């Protein structure tokens, strides 16, 4: 059994480029229409009408940023993990380097727990996606 390189996840998430990207996503989500962009970003949904695990996340982020948490949860419940992470990372884009270093040190000190948490959320995300796909396929439903 192989294990992840210690710290790879929080190092990737806390990287300056990721913090700037989170800021861009957060700002865009405030102005993005909750009905979507008018273009299907998901190749699986485009081809089948069925959702992947991430389907609805763009609209869910917009709904959360625009004060519609109920709508957001209906689109993709994993917005409860993604939106707060985007907000924190976006705030860290403005934080002084001393604050970022303290956050990095805290993440390093909790590396095993963070890695396990990432693994659990990822497994739940993929399981949710597979279940949602199967149910919609079985019921002949299309994802909005």
Structure description:
- With 144 residues, the chain is mainly alpha-helical.
- It has one domain (13-139).
- It contains eight helices and no strands.
- It has helices spanning 8-13, 16-31, 43-48, 57-65, 69-75, 79-92, 97-109, 111-139.
- α2 crosses α4, α2 packs across α6 and α4 (57-65) packs antiparallel against α5 (69-75).
- It starts with 7 loop residues before the first helix and ends in a 5-residue tail after the last helix.
- The model has no long low-confidence stretch (mean pLDDT 87).
**Rg, Cα atoms, Å:** 17 Å
Largest sheet: none
User: What is the total number of structural domains?
Assistant: 1
Helix-and-strand structural type: mainly alpha
The gross shape turns out to be: globular
> Residue ranges: pLDDT <50 for 5 or more in a row?
none
Q: Taking all residues together, what is the mean pLDDT?
A: 87
As a percent range, the share of helical residues equals 55-70%
Number of helices: 8
SSE run = HHHHHHHH
Termini, distance in Å?
A: 40 Å
Number-wise, the strands total 0
